[in-house]
Amino acid sequence: MHNILQATCDLFRPFISRDNDRYIQLRLQLQRASMKVLTDEYIVRAYIYALFFGILAAAFIYTVSKGTVLLVFALLLTSDPLIYEIMPPFYWTMIETMFSFVIIGYITFTTCLLIPGVRAGIRIGVIDQSLSHTVAFLYALSHGGAITVLDMFRSLSEQKDIYGAAASEFTKIVNDIEYFGTDLLTALSNATHRSPSGELRDFLEGLSSVLSSGGNISAYLGSKSKYFHDNAMKQQRMFFETLGVMAEVYISTFVAGPLFLMTILVVLGLINPSSTKILYIIVYLIIPVSTVTYLLLLNSLTGHGSKRTEIYKLDKYLKEFEDVPLREGNEDEKKKITHIRYYEKINKVTSRVLHPIKWMQANPKHTLLISIPLSIVYLRYNINRHIDLINLTSISDFNIEALASVDGQIFSAMLIVIIPYVLFYELWHMRITKIDEQIPDFLKNLAGMNESGMLLTDAIGFATHLKIGILHTEVRRMHNELSWGATLSEALKKFEYRIRTEMTTKIVYIIIKATETTSNIMNVLTIAATDAEVQKQLKKERKSEMFVYVFIIYVAFGVFLFIVYILAAYFLPSMPVASANANIGMPLIQLVDLEEYNVLLFHAAMIQGLCSGLVAGKMERGEVSAGFKYSIVMMLTAYLVFMTFF
Q1: How far, in whole angstroms, is CA 357 from its chain's centroid?
Q2: pLDDT tens across 554-572, in order?
């Protein structure tokens, strides 16, 4: 499919290129969105997508509507019941088909042209979030007199995974210089033109001016580092305001909206049982899909959560001599190498079997390898006691009573999967939080001791006698490695690999690169401590602010659960009595399956609890995984309410 699309683009590209001046703005947006595609090729693809979806819409309208929609619309405009006699039905169908082809094709083409601008807008927030750490890194390296600006950019470009989208922009500057032969000022000018972030453009313009005038680079980077740290605080406050609006949108649209529709459909179901089908769509389709859509929208605002990029792991395997041929060893050496590799694999498996807690603490996702098979075994041996699985293999044999009888077993299986993951995830997060709280003080202590004349290696040894909390064990191990002959760079990399937090990764990389260029490490430690302190304050402020929004989501779910429970426990059971006393000739309630409604309302409460918890976690920490604990609380509350009173 990709080859066909590429061949089509190559065929029509000359015709598009003649009119390429119309798309200068599109070319700029493609660059700022970092979409690796030529402008004319993107336009050809937009035309192809517009043609495809236009034909698809026309075929659908021709098959389903056959002119009905257009006739109804014409009747609404003219109020003439004989309007359909103006033309034969075939012409109405063709007009409707062509109209749908043009409209859907135009919407698709316009959407394709808008996508680069939207993606560029998303990158603005991502770049601005990482810009303060990026400038702090450049400021730390600038204290080494032997390093040039290009070398600083090159060091930054080597760690794009650590410093994010801002580092990617500097990678493009390095590529312009090394691969296209442009000078530094021209490369900065090009980067200023293509960068979507106004903050980064201002920074690059100022840097270009300082380089042209021969000013003090370190002083400029220091002032900009302080500015971006202060600006990060302001941006976070604006982010909280935006998130508050998003929380109100979620409550009104994704909680109150489905609840309002469900209440109306339950009432209508007393008259017309076919409305139950719409209730199925709302419960099992609209609520989950709308929640996923909302989470994707939140993801564009909050980012992807914390990352795990280990410096030591990236540098663990040497690749500099891959092209050097090795001499074949004798048979005895080959056997020894085979035995070593075999025992390495055995040791990896046995360490996980003998120390499963440590293995799962290192990565909470490892719990899923155990909990998911256990939940499957639990379902296999418990569902058979309540239901014949054949009843659930086809829609025609769907049985509400059978489904209701296994709800508790399915929920228990979900708890088997989620609870271990939540437990180890929260332990992992608590450990990271404690480490991040101790890192700034630890760096300040090192900077103070280094300022007094103590070497950094000696300062690390002296720090083992200080109260540094959870870091004490790891710092002591780092001191032991230094005493055994390891270099400072190796000890720091292993220290980072054992801790594995986003903050320590950035801090350790700054210190390692700075020690390679300067012997005056005190200023670098101070810069690293300041950057870590800013990150710490941002996290604390976010935690306190997000508590309010999490509480609001809890209240909204409580209202949702209360109304659903009132409908299931009081409204629906009272209807048969009211209908019988009225002596109406058409007993409406006999057409309604109360058991089916109870199951639907119960599932609605459970699904809404799961979705609301995930949204709460995404708003609190920027990670969906943080919301599973809230989902458990909400789902367990809904389950206990329905199981206790029914």
Answers
A1: 27
A2: 998 999 999 888 888 887 7
Using only C-alpha atoms, what is the Rg of the chain?
32
Q: Which of 158-162, 187-191, 366-370 has the lowest mean pLDDT?
A: 158-162
Phi first, then psi, for residue 16 (nearest 5°) are -75, -35
**DSSP code at position 322:** T
Cα 266 from Cα 279, distance rounded (Å):
8
Percent of the chain that is helix, strand, coil (3-state, to 5): 85, 0, 15
Q: For residue 446, what are its two tokens?
A: 């090192």
Distances (CA, A) of 605 to 359, 496, 562: 35, 44, 10
**C-alpha to C-alpha distances, 299 to 242, 246, 335, nearest whole angstrom:** 13, 12, 52
Longest dimension (CA), the chain: 100
Cα–Cα distance measured from residue 141 to residue 549, given in angstroms and rounded to the nearest whole number: 40
Please give the average per-residue pLDDT across 523-535, as a whole number.
80
Phi-psi category of residue 486: left, alpha or beta, with phi > 0 → left and psi -120 to 50 → alpha: beta
419: CB partners within 8 A, 6+ apart? 632
Sign of CA dihedral 610, 612, 614, 620: negative
CA atoms of 215 and 222, how far apart (whole Å): 13
CA pseudo-torsion sign 495, 496, 500, 501: positive
- Find out whether 146 and 517 touch, Cβ atoms under 8 Å: yes
Q: Is residue 631 a contact partner of residue 641, using CB atoms and an 8 Å limit?
A: no
The two tokens of residue 251 are 């409550």
Q: Residue 117: which residues within 8 A CB-CB, separation 6 or more?
A: 29, 33
- Note whether 511 and 528 are within 8 A (CB): yes
Instruction: Tell me which of 305 and 172 has the higher pLDDT.
Output: 172
Q: Render the burial of 482-514: b for 16+ CB within 10 Å, e for the rest.
A: beeeeebbbbbbbbbbebbbbbbbbbbbbbbbb
Phi-psi region of 484 (alpha: psi -120 to 50; beta: other; left: phi over 0): alpha
C-alpha torsion 596→602→607→612, nearest 10: 150
**C-alpha 432: how far from chain center:** 19
Any residues with CB less than 8 A from the CB of 295 and at least 6 apart, and which? 614, 615, 618, 624
Tokens of 569: 């426990």
CB 173 within 8 A of CB 252: no
> Which position has the token pair 């490369």?
187
SS3 labels along 372-387: HHHHHHHHHHHHCCCC
CA distance 602 to 569: 11
Q: Nearest Cα to 274, choosing from 605, 606, 593, 602?
A: 593
Residue 155 is classified by DSSP as H
Please give the Cα distance from 400 to 602 (Å, whole number).
12
**Cα–Cα distance measured from residue 102 to residue 520, given in angstroms and rounded to the nearest whole number:** 68
Beta carbons within 8 Å of 112's beta carbon, 6+ residues apart: 42, 45, 46, 49, 50
Q: Measuring CA to CA, how many Å separate 56 from each of 34, 65, 91, 93, 197?
A: 30, 14, 19, 15, 38
Hey, what amino acid is at 516? E
Contacts of 204-210 with CB under 8 Å at 24 or more apart are 207/149
**Cα separation values, 259 from 204, 283, 569, Å:** 51, 10, 16
- The rounded distance, in Å, linking the Cα atoms of 607 and 34 is 37
Quote the pLDDT of residue 588: 45
Q: Is the pLDDT of residue 87 over 60?
A: no
Rounded to whole angstroms, how far apart are CA atoms 403 and 392?
8
Question: What does the H/E/C string look like for 338-360?
Answer: HHHHHHHHHHHHHHHHHCHHHHH
